[in-house]
Amino acid sequence: MLYDCVIIGGGPAGLNAALVLGRARRSVVLIDNNQPRNAVTHASHGFLTRDGVTPGEFRGIAYEEVLRYPSVEHWQVEAASVIKTESGFKVTMQSGEHVQARKVILATGLKEVFPEIEGFYALYGKSLFNCPYCDGWELRDQPLVIVSESPMIFHFVKVVYNWSKDLIVCTNGHATLTNDQKELLLSKGITIREEPISAFIGQNGMLEQVRFTDGTQIERTGGFVSPSFLPKALFGESLGCALTEIGGIKTDDFGRSTIHGLYAAGDASYFMPSQLIYAAADGSKAAVGVNMDLIDEQFGL
């Protein structure tokens, strides 16, 4: 069977794309291996009518809605490859089975790469986070630590300052702040520590101290650690898609990549801001792009 569209990735972008295409009466296979990046998160925020929802609840509600449409199928498998064919695309799974479709939407998202600091993962998603827009409200007015090795650290600190003025900024051994930036942060009462961090210390998921390699410690109750982001899958790159400067798939306003019939949505096409509501909206636009193009092809345009 030749499907209208295969969607790879079952996050908010892929799910919303499937919803829109299901309502458009398109035959869709949604491939999702049930390994969401935000699984560690206790609650997701900033999505109207779902503020505070857990990732599991969000996915459960979304799948219930999406699979009401009889033309949408969910395959809980992992995609291994995508190749271009005369009729569209062939997507092969890790198991060896395959599916063919006229169009493909890549909604594979990102993987986070955090600094390797002992104790981090025991606290991540409970008292240490990566997105102030997602979790800043819960940490408001607390003594916080900000850890970033990125040149974007100055902007990141300014954003977090909106939620708490009691900040200690740690560059973890990297010289990422200019002298002018340091002076401005210090003038705001923000402490800067440039020594490498040896460990985060806490109990039951709650941060208590940050320990540096020189043996000194600071007391903090929470904070933000800035990761670097990499594409979770390289299907677009292997097909020859043009990429953005930061490695996402370059698309137009309706998710079309530079490869005919291939679309990208959510974190697969842009990396920031990485939030549910942006990704879901992007999935909707990509689905509209797919449907419009299928309609034009039907009319020989």
Query: What are the segments in which pLDDT stays under 50 over at least 5 consecutive residues?
Result: none
Number of helices: 8
What's the overall average pLDDT, rounded?
A: 94
CATH superfamily of the largest domain: FAD/NAD(P)-binding domain
CATH topology of the largest domain: FAD/NAD(P)-binding domain
Number of strands: 17
Q: Ends: how far apart?
A: 24 Å
Hey, roughly how much beta strand do the residues contain?
Answer: 25-35%
**Structure class:** alpha/beta
> Biggest sheet, in brief?
7 strands, mixed
CATH architecture label of the largest domain: 3-Layer(bba) Sandwich
The CATH class of the largest domain is: Alpha Beta
What count of structural domains?
Answer: 2
Task: Classify the oligomer.
Answer: single chain
Shape: elongated
Radius of gyration: 21 Å
* Approximate helicity band: 25-40%
Please give a handful of descriptors for the protein shown:
FAD/NAD(P)-binding domain, 8 helices, seven-stranded mixed β-sheet, 301 residues
Note the topology.
Layout: E1 2-8, H1 12-23, E2 28-31, H2 55-66, E3 72-75, E4 79-84, E5 89-93, E6 98-106, E7 110-113, H3 120-123, E8 128-129, H4 132-135, E9 144-147, H5 153-160, E10 167-170, H6 179-187, E11 191-193, E12 197-203, E13 206-212, E14 217-219, E15 222-225, E16 228-231, H7 235-239, E17 262-264, H8 276-298
Parallel strand pairs: 1-2, 1-6, 2-3, 6-17, 8-15, 9-10, 9-15, 10-11
Antiparallel strand pairs: 4-5, 5-6, 7-16, 12-13, 13-14
What does the model show?
The protein is an alpha/beta fold and 301 residues long. The chain has two domains: 2-111 and 228-298, FAD/NAD(P)-binding domain, CATH 3.50.50; 115-225, FAD/NAD(P)-binding domain. The chain is built from eight helices and 17 strands. The protein has helices at residues 12-23, 55-66, 120-123, 132-135, 153-160, 179-187, 235-239, 276-298; strands at 2-8, 28-31, 72-75, 79-84, 89-93, 98-106, 110-113, 128-129, 144-147, 167-170, 191-193, 197-203, 206-212, 217-219, 222-225, 228-231, 262-264. The strands form four sheets. Strands 1, 2, 3, 4, 5, 6 and 17 form a seven-stranded mixed β-sheet that branches. Strand 10, helix 6 and strand 11 (191-193) form a beta-alpha-beta unit. The two termini are 24 Å apart. 40% of the residues are buried. The model has no long low-confidence stretch (mean pLDDT 94).
